[in-house]
């Protein structure tokens, strides 16, 4: 393992790229824009999945699985959605390879195995799912349908970055069908709340809930709700979206139902998703120049025990104590790893666990055995304390809770101190130059203004916050009247 | 829901197809050969995943994720593997659609967005993974690598059937790297044992462990171990495979390591997988003419409570008792569903739960309330008993265990009574005509004989059983000497 990370101050982007690779989270693959998620990174994703899945099921959702491929004719059925994704999709045109007669031993596409209709590798599954729902829905009795799927999707992005923007990524996509507009709206909000709770309680990432403007909306949606987070470099990151689709997909796929009054109506829809992008948000919210910092709720293992010893006898004595601690912690549902590798010295192990963000490190050496103590070190603050062996369970349990809370509070303080109310455009540009996060400003509500601000500053409207109070004002760019502040930022 | 299933005796294949759809497990999609796994079917698959994942982790494996696409040049690097899969793969050739100028509003492949190198949608991931492992392995210290991935794969099958053979399917694929041949062999056997245990203890499916013959082996493997199950119609089903890959992939991708003696050597490999095909095996092992029969360990809910009532007051009284039962059962980790739908009569509910294979049904009506009893019905045997309310927890808990064991025993008895030792080829053909399952016969060990038998009878060698005792004999087809019996059968 090479020694030092580039510091965040030096080059934030380089720091991020190095950290993802050095902490063994992910790496680029032989396929342009596609990543390999390594076991340590995948273990974090699995914890996210488990918790989200639990929350979805608790709110009445079930999982299902729909095809990877979308026939072109279905793909183009909802016009806006098709337009939105056509420019960045992988297309299957053939179903066989054959030995190339001009290039022995090599394979080429078999020209005779051309598909009659091209298949799009799903960039999102509304089309294939609504085509399926058509067969599931006849009456209001068949509603609501509350289905989620965990899947891979492909968007042919030209500039990719590990976790943040990759051609293939993993996500969950919920697709629900409802008898009424109100119910579909409630679902849209319910899920955005689930996402916000998950981000705050599990990822320790404070988020702002809001609505997207028309130009930032999901292609095919009538409204898009989102949770927006702020990264350490002052850029925003959209961490999850929940779309109210109105009757657009039901109309595109002719999905009608008989309502309680016996009349035919189109079904109301929502869709919602979070992806492996959340890994990027997690990293850029908490980590530091020494490496990854993980909230205990998502750490693959929350505690690592490093034995300090000079000979086998010492190792055995340390291991005996470690085993007892491990048993005790496991009983409290705390995950522990005993790092018994004999190919690395303790210092190198310390550095690796620091780089990989293990929340708590316990070191046990011969001196500790004599004193009946162990050394407990906290990753997020680098503080160490000597703990009496008898109290180790309680101390570790409390400390994990304390770390989880403290990471959230730190991120919240940072975020709150990086929202600047701005009244004129010069100030707007200055705040952006200083990378100081969200700008809360009045906007005249037009797509033109939004577009011009984006062209001039690269800042976009991240959301119209749900909790923003009504307030008369003037648009920061045009001076036209406005009655609400929106949040601008540069974004990932 | 349409009433009756075709009976198994009438048309086994039709019975299967109808059952999958009517029990709400899966259906065909708009994409040729690709299925939609519906929530009830997916819930069973999730239970399989959870248990297998637990078993993999318990034996030291970690999950990771590798790209969906395999560049053609990597795909063809291991010759046999490439040949084996080239004829049935989906190929991505373009990365964009555009509006067709000759067909307004419709999309077509953008001819300018042609990929320089075609991408194969993974039919299996050895190639992309071994290309990745090359970067992970330098020394024996980096070994073993024990990685699994849960993923979708695509094989362009021409004749597809829900779960049994679909173009896209879900599976797990383990890919391990080892310093020695012995270790790789141990891993191959370990996993085959995991699969056998899982099949028997969770799916209640008895399996025979064995080795595949050369012609039935995985393309690129040196040996393939398998678990073979017998379906009710006398056909065999390969339920899982574990491959010893030797150094084939390490050589194809130049993956060398420095061993403990400081010398360079190629890495030893295994790969292994089970897929949604297991759903087919589950259905065809236990189900009957009334529908699905599920082992309690895999049922989405193990118990369903159906209230019998004529008015709201009765419903409330029944519900009160049901709620108490639910609480008690949940405490014992028994999953229960209270079927309170007011759109269906009890009889229709009974029929649906029978069709969907819920192991235990509890019915509660006004008469039961008076007597302090409930009616408990068992799906697999159709037996009913009246149970005193106080004893319901114990009765249900014991009954679930009893059903799980009884399903296994029934399947085991069936399987054991459907293995026929055969000494000559006329008898061989007669046994096959009567659909009586496995044929245990001597074989001269040549691919020619195997091929001829296959051509004449459609039966293949399912495996050379691990526990088959050495025994001198004569090949059932050629009369040439043989020292071991192998298992023949027609197969799914």
From TrEMBL, chains A, B:
Gene: proS
Family annotation (SMART domains): ProRS-C_1
PROSITE patterns named among the record's database cross-references: AA_TRNA_LIGASE_II
Residue ranges constituting the Aminoacyl-transfer RNA synthetases class-II family profile domain according to the UniProt record: 27-295
Gene Ontology cellular component terms for the protein in this record: aminoacyl-tRNA synthetase multienzyme complex; cytoplasm
Protein name: Proline--tRNA ligase
Function noted in UniProt: Catalyzes the attachment of proline to tRNA(Pro) in a two-step reaction: proline is first activated by ATP to form Pro-AMP and then transferred to the acceptor end of tRNA(Pro).
Cell compartments where the protein resides: Cytoplasm
Comment on protein domains: Consists of three domains: the N-terminal catalytic domain, the anticodon-binding domain and the C-terminal extension.
